[in-house]
């Protein structure tokens, strides 16, 4: 827990993006929240977490900073800390639907499915709508093998037209070992943002998980065309030739025992 005990008050300047998009370089004068979102678009979740934290150091009233911080902790498989920080944020913003969703997601990934579902119910009943509330609901439905997951994810996309939404839905499916459903969503992200390397990378890894080696090579090569220094895509291409592990197996090896 020591790593996170002062997360929202981290000092010092965060490192610059590891994999900035050629189409939209991140500059130091860009607000912290905008930088954090750009890092998410590049798959740099540790950096995004620090940037959300830096935004909250300047202004603790930024609810989207708190939500983003929780989301990045979830993605980084720090579910217990995500639940903790969502709870702290809810003390500042009681009843906030997105923070309730973040707490539900952290709770679910920590193994408390029943309480997570109740929190998700509350998040959907809260004032307003958001893609994140429906994304979390979809994850809970998919994890329990209920077909309503598709409806929930569709609602998430209706609420936010950003290509990050279908991309992050695909990542949820990959985590749940449902690559065929992930492929539908990541293809939509690629269609919406064909000039961004990270959707191509996730598409390539999804195709590799499904045994679609030819398609995976094309996707990973396109990722490398857009960002030649993408080490993971390069390793994946070499792994295809060597019969190596898929993205899902690597994910489970790295995060499965946490």
What this model shows, in words?
By secondary structure, the chain is mainly alpha-helical. Among the domains are: 30-128, Serine Threonine Protein Phosphatase 5, Tetratricopeptide repeat; 185-258, Serine Threonine Protein Phosphatase 5, Tetratricopeptide repeat (Alpha Horseshoe), CATH 1.25.40. It is built from 14 helices and no strands. Helix 5 (97-109) runs parallel beside helix 7. The protein is globular.
Structural class: mainly alpha
Fraction in beta strands: under 5%
CATH secondary-structure class of the domain at 30-128: Mainly Alpha
Assign the CATH topology of the domain at 30-128: Serine Threonine Protein Phosphatase 5, Tetratricopeptide repeat
**Helix content, binned percent:** 55-70%
SS element count, helices: 14
Spell the H/E element sequence.
HHHHHHHHHHHHHH
Shape, per Cα inertia axes? globular
Q: Can you name the CATH architecture of the domain at 30-128?
A: Alpha Horseshoe
The CATH superfamily of the domain at 30-128 bears the name Tetratricopeptide repeat domain
